Amino acid sequence: MAKKVAFLQGNEAAAQGALYAGCTFFGGYPITPSTEVAEVMSVELPKIGGKFIQMEDEIGAMASVIGASLTGAKVLTATSGPGLSLKQELIGYACIAETPCVIVNVMRGGPSTGMPTGPSQSDVMCAKWGTHGDHPAICLTPASVQELFEETVRAFNLAEKYRTPVMVMPDEIVAHMRERIVFPEPGELEVINRTAPTVAPAEYKPYDTSFGDVPPLAAFGSGYRFHVTGLNKGQDGFPTTKAAWVQAEEERQVRKVDANVDDIVQFEEYELADAEVAIVAFGSTSRSARFAVNEARKQGIKAGLFRIKTFWPFPDKQIAALAGKVKAFITPEMNLGMCTGEVKRCAEGKAAVHGIFRVDGEPINPGQILEKIKEVK
Amino acid sequence: MAFDYDKYIRPGKLPHIWCPGCGHGIVMKGLIRAIDTLGLQKDNTAIVSGIGCASRLPGYMDFCTLHTAHGRAAAFATGVKMAKPEMNVILVGGDGDGTAIGGNHFIHACRRNIDMTYIIMNNNIYGMTGGQFSPCTPTGAKASTTVYGNPDPAFDVAKLAIGAGATFVARGTAYHATQIDKLIAEAIQHKGFSVVEILDDCPTTYGRRNKFKSVIEMMNRLKDIAVPVKAAEKMTAEQLEGKILTGVLYKEERPNYTDEYAKVIERAKK
């Protein structure tokens, strides 16, 4: 049988991806340009007995999804820049309480109200450093409607597998463009659910590291009674200020991601084998970059593209390896140098890094990138 | 036979953090007696709090307990209740947590009439941070940030809850200990969002700054200002000056949120 094909908007694809992954709860607050995610969830979730709630504010939306996640539900919220700033308080809570949840953040201009309908890629640092304290960060930056669907599924998988919040961050162009999408059949994409406890309720500890760095998570109302707090906690879930426990738990929370970068980090290499100039790009900008690479190749310039799919954890290893092979990097992005700084960090001076920055609400076009390729080749 | 509180307390989690003379322990015992009276199942009951002295209560209780962020108890609890409507959800916290930083979540939980019970321990002060004035500190009172007297007017928590749409609102005091469990039990039984304000005392950060010589004096004040709603009906405005009504202040039957959402599901499935 032919697969189901549709002409879908990016935000709609994110919602459909969440449903494919088994999401049964959405808590949100309206904000441009992500609102369509909430609209689709409000229509689709009750059809399958799921729950949609429009909360009183962005913080409340984040709180509601964490609460629902603790009952065992797979949960989603969606927002954009100013909402992401507000959600940071409880993104930190989800990190320390190790509660799986997925946040779709559609990147618009900022800071503050900025340019609500203009595209941007300037929230990528907020995804890593937005909430205070040391914490793990996973952030996916899809570049097409199809990929937004698939990466939302993967975001749920990573959230459930590592018991941590995961962000899906399309820029406004990817979120609002309409493209052909081929829906995967049920079972075609992997769907991961959190590990349930195997011990008896009396023995259960919510952060029991004898099960590894990602301890099983029980659900409220399932016969397991446990305590959840935003305070530093011991393996039993109760607050502690005991130095050794706090140190160990903090390190473990970050290690869940750091020790698993090869499982989490995904990227695409295009025409890089013999490339002298490597463009490092993500989201809609990577589409312009691919076009520019093709044009450069036609003109005999050895250009290639490293497309970031997983922005956090950053593909450190891959960029470092490229730095030893290429003469220069070009980093086009719709911000003032966030990815560029990361590429410089990884390149350690072995290759020059040339940024192309746009924050005027206009996309970076292929011509702009091609011009830079010719300049630095 | 003495009431067995230990049945509901997590082994090894006492002593609590509350100061000698603090009323929070009296409220916790009242909550336990109410839970016992109603026969709520531990596995099927979530106790959710925010941040502050009162919000440490869930950690001592042998239930599904969720100590959230400052002011966010109602919003987390809404997620729990929506996802698992069959669970009993009880919120606890202080006046600053619930009516200042958590004020927005509080009024919207009232408006939705979601079937949960919110116990607000109102001791008129931010105790954990050392005694700064809260939205419930009386005008003129001293706090560490109002040493010249508080210029702010105070919230009436019960009126706020009623105005925002809560369908059961009651008030008690830490002095009237045996009334607490009755009010809480009635609140939990009520189908809809119920609020129980317990006037409480903070001898450490409020009492000593406001010329209360002892905990007994603070407790006596609670005794003196409390007037049961029934008794108040026969009193003149003059007699009620400076008094605070206690008992069930408001009750109405109105569709609750999770039942209404169940209807949304039915309509969506058609």
UniProtKB/TrEMBL annotation, chain A:
Listed Gene3D superfamilies: 3.40.50.920, 3.40.50.970
CDD domains reported for this sequence: TPP_PYR_PFOR_IOR-alpha_like
One Pfam family per UniProt: PFOR_II
SUPFAM superfamilies hit by this protein: Thiamin diphosphate-binding fold (THDP-binding), TK C-terminal domain-like
Protein's UniProt keywords contain tRNA processing: no
Any one GO molecular function term: oxidoreductase activity
Keywords, alphabetical: Oxidoreductase
InterPro entries linked: 2-oxoacid_oxidoreductase, PFOR_II, Pyrv_Fd/Flavodoxin_OxRdtase_N, THDP-binding, Transketo_C/PFOR_II
Name used for this protein in its record: 2-oxoglutarate ferredoxin oxidoreductase subunit alpha
Gene source species: Geomonas paludis
Encoding gene (name): korA
From TrEMBL, chain B:
GO molecular function: oxidoreductase activity, acting on the aldehyde or oxo group of donors, iron-sulfur protein as acceptor; thiamine pyrophosphate binding
Coiled coil stretches, renumbered: none
Thiamine pyrophosphate enzyme TPP-binding domain location: 51-198
GO biological process: cellular respiration; small molecule metabolic process
Lineage: Bacteria, Pseudomonadati, Thermodesulfobacteriota, Desulfuromonadia, Geobacterales
Keywords per UniProt: Oxidoreductase
Listed name of the protein: 2-oxoacid:ferredoxin oxidoreductase subunit beta
Transmembrane residue ranges: none
